[in-house]
Amino acid sequence: MKNLKGACIFAQSGGPTSVINASAAGVFIEALGQENITKVYGAAHGIKGILTENFYDMGQEDMKELELLKYTPSSALGSVRYKLKDASVDDTDYKRILEVFKKYDIRYFFYNGGNDSMDTCNKISKYMASSGYECNVIGVPKTIDNDLFGTDHCPGYGSAAKYVATTLMEVNLDAKVYDTGMVCIIEVMGRNAGWLTASAALAGTKGLGADLIYLPEVPFDMDKFVADVKDVCAKNNNKCIAVVSEGIKFADGKYVGEFKASATDLFGHAQLGGVCNVLAGVIKQATGIKVRGIEFSLMQRCAAHLASKTDIEETFRAGREAVKAAVSGETDKMVCYERKAGDKYEIEYKLLPLELAANTEKQVPKEWITANGTGLTEDFVKYALPLIQGDAKAPLEDGLPRFAQLKKVLATK
Amino acid sequence: MKNLKGACIFAQSGGPTSVINASAAGVFIEALGQENITKVYGAAHGIKGILTENFYDMGQEDMKELELLKYTPSSALGSVRYKLKDASVDDTDYKRILEVFKKYDIRYFFYNGGNDSMDTCNKISKYMASSGYECNVIGVPKTIDNDLFGTDHCPGYGSAAKYVATTLMEVNLDAKVYDTGMVCIIEVMGRNAGWLTASAALAGTKGLGADLIYLPEVPFDMDKFVADVKDVCAKNNNKCIAVVSEGIKFADGKYVGEFKASATDLFGHAQLGGVCNVLAGVIKQATGIKVRGIEFSLMQRCAAHLASKTDIEETFRAGREAVKAAVSGETDKMVCYERKAGDKYEIEYKLLPLELAANTEKQVPKEWITANGTGLTEDFVKYALPLIQGDAKAPLEDGLPRFAQLKKVLATK
């Protein structure tokens, strides 16, 4: 554990969340107050910004704007999807990163992202260590998918879950407004883990949830799906709300979103617009009832106006904890949340070796999925409900959110 | 003008809005306090509830729940799409309505809806008058489409506009997060009038709007659209956000949503999922840039958590004014908003003869659309911005909205 003195750089990676910038705020505000940190940089578009020496001098920003980052959706510095090769295969990028770190005397590197980003973080950390360059590397988790290993939950999940549950309650009321039949099929993000789709069950606690919930954890069976919907419709005046994960797959591993029905039907093609429209077509044909496919699309990950206050505060704190850990000499770790035992919801901030976090996906436990495969147990609700508590959002200006406006002064090369 | 004594009935019709129940709250709360109103009924599913004698005794409800209606989306009593025939063609329904009104001594009828509902209201009013049955009939406007004639704007529009503008700002930030190309095509409701689509221009005042806006008021040209998008992409690192109304039509009157491209392409079919996906397919093929179609779907009309406080207050007041007008002897009128002259936004509540409101659609004035047909002028912004001011929403319970819970006690037959 080394206490280093030098500059720090922070970068954002992967799909954004509505609170991802709360971690940025935490890192920047904490780092700007640390004596051992001489300069605070923010990389444009993740690791790419480092490779191309495109980064901002965060010391030039107004504190008020940095605070507003807490309520500003999407990655304020820009994001990237870029996976580093193994250094043993091709170390070009690593050499370049080392060169840049040396040039700017960067001794602290914070990377904000999901599984892939933690892998990147881990590789860079290992490379720096093997090169004898002292640099403390800390990962800051984020993902609406909530699928990172080793943390009770992920920054960003609570807000996305709050969006899904609240919006589902509203759509539930709207979809039942007529006395005629209506099947609503709502598509929620989550390619391999169903955490976000499962949050539909929170709306269910208010009697305004989904009749059926399909997670990628359970192999999807089209005949059972049609039977499930028909069953609900028969009991419920031809009304049914189903929430499906974008990542549901058949038993053979093929995505339902790529399902092609028989050549003779109207829907014999992979639909643009996702699995909800594929399923809407199937149900329309099987039942004749009016069907509407609804994608929560980008809104579920950018609706900062509906963020969870708990999530914002924890996410901000995760950024601060990353800096504190690095300054105290920690490296090659990811900040994670540990839930304390007891009825009252409380978390502790811990550190997890990056290689444990990298590339492992945590799915919804099978025992939290009901026997029929279309619902969640009370244990899931107990787990998720504390994460969506409280409201906090950007102040209004002309009735619209006043998001952070950064100057983005490029660091002098 | 007759001052009548007897029961009143209120019914909701057509597509809901996120604040439609604020008018219900206004009508019920005002009516329950009026001496001349002996009973307050709420019809289940609009005019159908009257025809089938399915209505609720609103006097049985708790005042707290009636107040919560202000923040509860969708039509709490249930809605209907049912157009009465002309009485001269078939007066069966009218006879039945008269029979029901007589049976329950209903002397006040309030109908909450858009163009069609005002027409229904007008027909019933005329029939009652010609039958010599004294009943004061007042229409209460509502529509996110904002297309009712004779009122400055419509209850429900401000909240939907606030949803569109706020969500567009958030999606704008998300859609630009990577340094790779991305065209976003967002579909907004409004079959024949582009008011709601135009509200995208409000986000533009914050620099987070759409590059291109297409209203049904302007004939749509696919070649121009492709050229417009390419032009924005060329200037803007292959990034473009276009907002389109679901109701855009080609010069020949055909809906763009029903457009079929050539038989050889991937998109040679009417897509489920609306015009945004049709256009996404066209742009994908024409440019090769990543494209995402986003439908604001039901959310734009049911996102009560993002309602405009101004809209809620006006909509509630519209309900009260309807009752006051009827009790003071007015009939065959619709409540409408008149904007006062001057810089400060203020409205007055007026009454308009129902036959003027019925079946007339008000479109966005041509002079508020920019010369290139893809933007709105400053005059539109001045018109619309006051309508989205302020926040108000249901209290939270477990982090989720606590919507009104009505007992819905059926009136004794």
Compact description:
The first copy, chain A, is α/β, with parallel strands linked by helices and 413 residues long. The first copy, chain A, has 14 helices and 13 strands. The first copy, chain A, has helices spanning 20-32, 47-51, 63-68, 92-103, 115-131, 157-175, 195-198, 200-204, 222-235, 275-287, 299-302, 309-327, 354-357, 378-384; strands at residues 6-12, 37-43, 55-57, 106-113, 136-141, 182-188, 212-214, 239-245, 291-295, 333-339, 347-353, 396-397, 400-401.
Q: Biggest sheet of chain A, in brief?
A: 7 strands, mixed
Strand content of chain A: 15-25%
Say what oligomer this is: homodimer
Low-confidence stretches of chain A: 261-272
Count of alpha/pi helices of chain A? 14
SSE string of chain A, helix = H, strand = E?
EHEHEHHEHEHEHHEHEHEHHEEHHEE
Structural class of chain A: alpha/beta
Mean pLDDT of chain A, rounded to whole units?
A: 94
Radius of gyration of chain A: 23 Å
- Helix fraction of chain A? 25-40%
Shape of chain A: elongated
What separation lies between the terminal Cα atoms of chain A? 30 Å
Enumerate the strands of the largest sheet of chain A in spatial order, edge to edge or round the barrel: 3-2-1-4-5-10-11
Which pair of protein chains has the largest interface, and what are the residue counts?
A: A-B, 67 and 67 residues
Number of distinct beta strands of chain A: 13
